[in-house]
Amino acid sequence: MNVLDFARAIFGLAFVLGLIGLCAWAARRYAPQLLAKLGAERGERRLQVMETLVLDPARRLVLVRVDDEERLILLGEGRELIEPRQPAERPTPAAPAPEPAPVETPRPFARLNLSALNKGGLK
C-alpha cells in the first residue's frame, strides 16, 4: 500500500464521517418540525405529553393527558411514580373568576415496583 492509497482511504473516511455528521445535524434541526406536521395529519390523538420538567440528570416529571384525565409521572432510577388527577378548569376570559375550591389533602403516589416483575420470570 503506497502513500497515495493511504491518503485516499483517509480522505474517504473523513468524507463519510462528514456526511454522517451533516445528516445528524439535519435530523436534529428539521426532524421535530417534520414529525409535528406528520402528527397533525393523523387526526386527534388520545395521548398527549402536556409538559416535562427535568429534576436532575436521573429524574424527570412528565404531565400526560389521556382523554380527559391528566397523570403526573415521575420517571427515573428504575421506578415510576404515577398520580392520576383531573385537568384544571381554566376560566374563559368573559366568565367571572370562580370561587377558590377547598384545599384537598394530596393523595400519595402509586408506586410501581418493576424489580418484582423481573423476579417473576420476565426476560
TrEMBL record:
Q: Which InterPro entries match?
A: Flagellar_biosynth_FliO, FliO/MopB
Listed GO biological process terms: bacterial-type flagellum organization
Q: Where in the cell is it found?
A: Bacterial flagellum basal body; Cell membrane
Cell membrane is among the record's keywords: yes
Region annotation Disordered: where it falls in the sequence: 83-109
- Transmembrane stretches in the record are 6-27
Which residue ranges have biased composition labelled Pro residues? 93-105
Q: Which domain of life is it from?
A: Bacteria
Provide an example Pfam family for this protein.
FliO
- Gene Ontology, cellular component aspect: bacterial-type flagellum basal body; plasma membrane
* Alphabetic keyword roster: Bacterial flagellum, Cell membrane, Membrane, Transmembrane, Transmembrane helix
- Is this entry keyworded Transmembrane helix? yes
Question: What is the protein's major site of localization?
Answer: other
Q: Its family?
A: Belongs to the FliO/MopB family.
Protein name (record): FliO/MopB family protein
Instruction: Provide the species name.
Output: Brevundimonas goettingensis
